[in-house]
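Sequence dictates fold. Below is an illustrative record:

_____
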Amino acid sequence: MRCLIVSDIHANIVAFDAVLRHADGKFDKIWCLGDIVGYGPSPNECIERIRQFPHSCVLGNHDSAALDRLDLNDFNTDAQDSARWTQTQLTAANRDYLASLPEKLVEEGITLVHGSPRQPVWEYIMFPSVAKIQFAYLSTDVCFVGHTHVPVVFSYYQAENGPEVCEASVLPVEETFEIGKERQIINPGSVGQPRDGDARAAYAIIDTEANTLQHFRVEYAISQVQETMRRYNLPPRLIARLVYGW
């Protein structure tokens, strides 16, 4: 099966639609790693769009915040303002959809979470030292995560001289590479708010039969999203950051 892997759409329907157009005909199902909403101006549209496709999705921290399940004091002020605005925008049906999402899934022998295997909704995996700990919480060899908005592969293996090693590597763009040779935690990056210095939307496609993955970046009309955000008086910093990919 071929799956389109997306994460951190963050209510950016323009970026999400650009990804769907770019990946058209290349996938059978969507795997979403959470945070469909938050930050961006189109929460209902993004939920309704993903529901048009066969998909599996896990709960992200901004999805949880939109449901008022998290203390907003744990978020920065821009994220707080965005979460409160999102709460006022969601339809009852879309709120119910978010409320139905699990924190963790296993699909085709692969774990899907938003944050980490240890703390699926909230924990960030930014460094190999943190990633190494996570493998003890995994029943599968491969795990996909989101949350940091940065594409990366953490590989865990036994070195020749004995110690267990966890290394980080860049997720290559448009190269087919094999997964599962080592235990791996893979982040495909963010659709709606990249933070690796590349403003283009990020996504991946996995072939679960061939055990291969491809990572892609897609340009989209950032100015269109920014204009919509201004119309709704969303925080200026959230508007500006889209151009810079941070």
Q: What stands out?
A: The longest helix spans residues 77-89. The first strand starts at residue 2 and ends at 6. The chain has one domain: 2-244.
